[in-house]
Backbone:
């Protein structure tokens, strides 16, 4: 997935500028940076939902509809009458689409995915009755079924309880082992250092991009904060 | 006693063809309006629906001005101006200019004012009242056919695209990433078509009523979307029937009577369902 000279203007505001680089296939990258650094905007551009003002993004997986994008939880309508099982089953969209039913093996896959995030007790509860962490786990179970080539996660750990974070990190590690390309916006630097091999430090422009160890230096972080 | 009940409930429709046409039209509208209303509520688009119902007005008024009482001109004009406003509001929300609400209300007021001005200038007072409140009791057979066609087409489209439309309401990003597009446009189109035919029966001020009110009442009773839609249809049909009877026996304007009955259903649903919920938690508390 290559990004070349990407610039995004939202009204008068310059959200992203001069972003160039690439996410290697199978890489696991944390996008970090101060508030307003354009992290969510970058994911929006990578997903193709937002067209950059200038520059281009080359993402072959997008043409095959094999990109999964999980926006921030705040975008979700928690009052919508869907159960955990229904949310997760949607992950099989590529095979069932708009018309086919759920076969017995498909139902087993849904149940397995739910079990992997330890929600089997809640599978018939409405998402409105769950905690933020539980809802996140349900959406991660859905992601597992989608089998995407590229996974974009916007603040997957925001407002999520410790135990759920553990489960989510386990799944991310599994997807990484399966060779999927993952880009996640993360705030907690310790989590980034412990679980993400690559990092992109963003402050409208990329301040540093590469191995997490070389990116998250005091020096770079100070520069990012100053540029914000 | 039985004869008086018969007189009360059946005779009005037996004796007058305009009552029969009216009830057929209202039942057809309730059939497609129920599911659409539920979807509007689930998408939190009640205001958008309201705006669209007024957006139909200036076009319909133009059609009326240029082609007298021609049904086709009225419908085409209404559809055209509604589609235009739907497109404009879509653009507005995409540009993120002053989040929708203000823009939507401006559209709705201007559309209403423009429509009324056109009708008042070129028509009579009777015409003005007709476009504002509709004429349930003066639907001609060709208008009834139009309503039946729209209702049928809506039901077929909803049945075919149900899963995609629901998913688009819940998680549009997922659907876009999966490569399915156009569900929002399709849904807006269905709402618009129903509003155009509802406009002719209920007028611009009440057109959205038979769509939204039964759905709002149904939402008090269940969280399952399918059941909610069925219930909305049932409540819509019941309000139509009772409303028409009220208007016949008490000589009330029929459109407003139907909307008021639907409103009463909503009020009763809110009271009874919240009362039942309170009772349930009370009982559960006692058991513990």
Residues:
């Amino acid at each position: 997935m290559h990004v070349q000279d990407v610039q995004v203007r939202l009204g008068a505001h310059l959200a992203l500028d001069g972003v160039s680089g690439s996410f290697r296939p199978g890489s696991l990258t944390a996008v970090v940076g101060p508030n307003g650094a354009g992290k969510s905007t970058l994911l929006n551009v990578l997903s193709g939902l937002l067209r950059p003002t200038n520059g281009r993004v080359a993402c072959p997986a997008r043409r095959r509809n094999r990109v999964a994008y999980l926006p921030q939880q705040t975008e979700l309508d928690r009052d919508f009458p869907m159960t955990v099982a229904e949310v997760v089953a949607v992950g099989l969209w590529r095979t069932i689409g708009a018309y086919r039913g759920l076969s017995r093996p498909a139902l087993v896959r849904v149940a397995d995915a739910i079990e992997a995030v330890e929600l089997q007790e809640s599978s018939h509860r409405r998402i409105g009755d769950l905690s933020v962490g539980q809802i996140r786990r349900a959406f991660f179970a859905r992601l597992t079924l989608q089998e995407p080539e590229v996974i974009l996660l916007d603040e997957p750990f925001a407002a999520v309880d410790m135990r759920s974070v553990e489960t989510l990190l386990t799944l991310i590690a599994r997807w990484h082992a399966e060779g999927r390309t993952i880009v996640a916006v993360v705030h907690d630097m310790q989590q980034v250092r412990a679980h993400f091999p690559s990092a992109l430090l963003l402050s409208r422009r990329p301040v540093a991009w590469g191995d997490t160890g070389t990116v998250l230096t005091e020096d770079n972080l100070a520069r990012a904060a100053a540029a914000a | 006693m039985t004869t008086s009940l018969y007189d009360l409930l059946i005779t009005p429709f037996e004796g007058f063809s305009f009552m029969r046409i009216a009830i057929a039209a209202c039942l057809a509208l309730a059939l497609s309006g129920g599911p659409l209303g539920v979807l509007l509520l689930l998408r939190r688009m009640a205001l958008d629906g309201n705006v669209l119902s007024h957006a139909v007005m200036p076009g319909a008024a133009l059609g009326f001005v240029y082609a007298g009482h021609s049904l086709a001109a009225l419908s085409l004009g209404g559809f055209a101006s509604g589609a235009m406003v739907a497109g404009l509001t879509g653009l507005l929300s995409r540009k993120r200019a002053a989040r929708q609400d203000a823009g939507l209300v401006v559209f709705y007021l201007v559309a209403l004012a423009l429509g009324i001005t056109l009708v008042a200038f070129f028509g009579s007072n009777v015409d003005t009242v007709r476009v504002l409140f509709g004429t349930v009791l003066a639907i001609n057979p060709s208008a009834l056919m139009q309503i039946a066609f729209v209702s049928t087409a809506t039901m077929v489209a909803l049945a075919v695209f149900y899963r995609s439309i629901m998913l688009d309401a819940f998680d549009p990003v997922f659907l876009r990433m999966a490569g399915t597009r156009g569900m929002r446009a399709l849904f807006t189109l269905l709402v618009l078509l129903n509003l155009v035919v509802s406009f002719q029966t209920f007028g611009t001020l009440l057109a959205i009523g038979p769509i939204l009110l039964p759905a709002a009442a149904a939402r008090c009773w269940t969280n399952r979307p399918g059941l909610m839609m069925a219930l909305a249809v049932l409540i819509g049909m019941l309000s139509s029937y009772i409303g028409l009877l009220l208007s016949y026996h008490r000589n009330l304007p029929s459109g407003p009577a139907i909307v008021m009955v639907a409103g009463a259903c909503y009020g009763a649903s809110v009271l009874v369902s919240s009362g039942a919920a309170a009772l349930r938690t009370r009982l559960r508390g006692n058991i513990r």
Q: What stands out?
A: The first helix of chain B runs from residue 2 to 9. The domain at 2-287 of chain B is CATH 1.10.3470.10 (ABC transporter involved in vitamin B12 uptake, BtuC). Chain B has one domain: 2-287. The interface with chain A takes residues 42, 44, 96, 161, 163-164, 167, 169-171, 173-174, 176-180, 223-225, 228 of chain B (CB under 8 Å).
